[in-house]
């Protein structure tokens, strides 16, 4: 970080994955930083992560979502970058010591998107339809809603996944709405899935900026931080931490502001779709972390604790 502390070189480097969406998000953050501080030089440091390299196996089988961010954190630790830009749903509940999420941008559409060339809606899928998804969370909820579907693993970047749909291999795929909209592909969305069918992932639709816990960096990033989004994210990540959610855990958590209160809904499900534990609570936005911990405790006590313990055992 020597360059940053040298006043003559006001240059910030952003570590980012090389995927189209990751580069869009990093460039978006760079643009915001330049707008707030016109004298600031900002550049991207694209990095291929382990998660990007391994495309032939489900994420849960190779170590989970942290695979997409570890190399970015190493780049910061080694002084090759000052910041990393993440989709917050890829960020584990625990950050390395000395690192923090210094800013989160206003949340985009958090819902899951149903994409199909043959069927007008999720409810219109015929029995046995092949549906592709990369996520245990989505797999669990799809099976809970429609045990008759053939849910198949789907890895790769957005273009790769769309190609598999267009080639006719699959009847439908499920992706995050936010990423499609950011890439200008919103017209490909057949239906926005109601959270009652597919509850969003913790942090879905939120872009976060990670850095070392450094007062100068925090000051530069502070204007980009969206308070209401951070409250939702804090509640969701506290829920995830309380559940000790790992890559083998199909969990969902979604917070929103309702009439001055923060409402948090959480879900823990088995990959095969049953059992499912689901609950919601409200609390003051200023107590977001406590709300997440309370809801996590309630889900664990209701039976999610035993289910998660079984899933962790099976994963090892």
Description of the structure:
With about 325 residues, the protein is α/β, with parallel strands linked by helices. The protein has 3 domains: about 1-105 and about 205-225, Periplasmic binding protein-like II (D-Maltodextrin-Binding Protein, domain 2, 3-Layer(aba) Sandwich), CATH 3.40.190.10; about 110-190, D-Maltodextrin-Binding Protein, domain 2; about 235-315, Double Stranded RNA Binding Domain (2-Layer Sandwich). About 35% of the residues lie in helices and about 25% in strands. The chain contains 11 helices and 13 strands. Strands 2-1-3-10-4 form a 5-stranded mixed β-sheet, with helices on both faces. Strands 7-6-8-5-9 form a 5-stranded mixed β-sheet, sandwiched between helices. It has a 3-stranded antiparallel β-sheet with strand order 11-12-13. A hairpin with a 6-residue loop joins β12 (about 260-270) and β13 (about 275-285). α10 crosses α11. The radius of gyration is 20 Å and the shape is globular. It starts with a helix and ends with a helix. The model is unreliable at about 1-10 and about 55-65 (pLDDT under 50).
């Amino acid at each position: 970080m020597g360059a940053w502390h040298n006043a003559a070189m006001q240059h910030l480097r952003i570590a980012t994955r090389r995927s189209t969406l990751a580069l869009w998000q990093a460039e978006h953050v760079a643009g915001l930083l330049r707008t707030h501080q016109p004298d600031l030089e900002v550049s991207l440091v694209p990095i291929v992560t382990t998660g990007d390299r391994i495309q032939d196996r489900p994420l849960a089988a190779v170590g989970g979502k942290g695979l997409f961010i570890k190399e970015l954190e190493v780049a910061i630790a080694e002084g090759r970058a000052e910041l990393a830009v993440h989709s917050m749903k890829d960020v584990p509940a625990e950050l390395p010591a000395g690192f923090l999420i210094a800013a989160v941008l206003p949340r985009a559409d958090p819902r899951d998107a149903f994409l199909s060339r043959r069927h007008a809606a999720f409810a219109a899928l015929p029995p046995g339809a092949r549906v592709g998804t990369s996520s245990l969370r989505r797999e669990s909820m799809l099976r809970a809603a429609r045990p008759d579907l053939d849910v198949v693993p789907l890895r790769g970047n957005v273009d790769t996944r769309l190609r598999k749909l267009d080639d006719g291999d699959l009847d439908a795929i499920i992706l995050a709405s936010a990423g499609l909209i950011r890439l200008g592909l919103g017209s490909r969305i057949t239906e926005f899935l109601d959270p009652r069918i597919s509850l969003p992932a913790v942090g879905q639709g939120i872009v976060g900026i990670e850095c070392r816990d450094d007062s100068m960096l925090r000051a530069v990033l502070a204007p980009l931080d969206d308070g209401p989004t951070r409250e939702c994210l804090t509640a969701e990540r506290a829920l995830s931490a309380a559940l000790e959610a790992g890559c083998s855990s199909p969990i969902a958590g979604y917070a929103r502001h309702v009439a001055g209160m923060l409402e948090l809904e959480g879900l823990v499900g088995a990959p095969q779709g049953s059992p499912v534990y689901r609950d919601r609570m409200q609390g003051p936005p200023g107590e977001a972390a406590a709300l997440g911990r309370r809801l996590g405790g309630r889900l664990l006590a209701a039976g999610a604790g035993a289910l998660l313990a079984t899933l962790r055992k099976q994963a090892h």
